[in-house]
Amino acid sequence: MIAPWRYSGIKRIPWSEFTTFGPNPGVFTESEQFRILGERHRAYDREIGLMANDTHQDVITDTGQPPVFEEARDPVTRRAFIKSVIATGAVASTGGLMLVGLSGCSDEATQAAGSVERLVTLNVNGKSRPVDVLPNETLAMTLRYKLGLTGTKLACDRGECGACTVLVDDVTHNSCSTLTHSVRGRDVTTVEGLEQPDGTLHPVQQAMIDELGPQCGFCTPGQVMSGVALLKNNPNPSREEARQGLAGNLCRCGAYDHYLNSIMRAARVS
Ligand code: FES
Ligand code: FES
Questions:
Q1: Does the CB atom of residue 159 touch ligand 1 within 6 A?
Q2: E-state strands within 125-229
Q3: What's the pLDDT tens digit per position in 146-168?
Q4: Which atom of ligand 1 is nearest to the CA of 164?
Q5: What's the CATH number for 194-269?
Q6: Bridging pattern class, strands 119-124 and 171-174
Q7: Which residues fall within 8 angstroms of residue 141, CB to CB, at 6 or more apart?
Q8: For 109-113, 166-170, 190-194, which range has the lowest pLDDT when averaged over its residues?
Q9: Least crowded by CB within 10 Å, which of 19, 127, 182, 225?
Q10: Which of 145, 160, 249 is the pocket-test mutation for ligand 1 (most atoms within 8 Å of CB)?
Q11: Per residue in 214-228, pLDDT tens?
């Protein structure tokens, strides 16, 4: 299991530092980039007590609970770390400051000024989903690693590619750049929520199949969600309007015309 908070925005190391598009293009080979990035992540994880000093293993078990030796091994434990995150969280709503039942995190019903409620209920695909959310957690992380909705893809993780597109109140959002706490009380729709209960696909999904839209398919969920949002607002778009509607959804395979054909077909049949 991946420890989700390693990727949840806490002192993250920007990829731009290593990629060929970054400030030092061509300095590192790809394998060097991964080695350096890995070493820096591990050093940070050891610093905050999420990784044992003498291994490359995260301090977490498959049940999501820290192993029993954690507190004895390191004074900066996961428990203490999460407590400090809660106490210093300064984002999202401060309206509900209940620290109720933070499983594995808090023994006391104490409440720190400026903290944020972590146990929240999200409306996702028409269902109420209770979930424990860190103050700085992105919606993409919550959807993929806490709610198991892996149809939403993570690629750039910085709002550039559209792979993580979901609908929030029927408006497209890059979920990698949206704080989960900011969507409380709003309707979130992911690609998993488009299919009818009887298995009938959304017209955009069906059109993607009929037009052989995807190549590798990694960008497809984002393209689908943008197409769905477009047709909700403009059921009969021109090809140029469809192109505008999908703008921001990058496709490394270059299947843009296939996706446009799919949207135009979906508009015709729906
Ligand atoms: S992963 Fe969110 S925009 Fe690229
Ligand atoms: S189909 Fe491969 S990235 Fe779009």
A1: yes
A2: 127-132, 165-168, 171-174, 187-189
A3: 999 999 999 999 999 999 999 99
A4: 2
A5: 1.10.150.120
A6: unpaired
A7: 4, 7, 8, 180
A8: 109-113
A9: 127
A10: 160
A11: 999 999 999 999 999
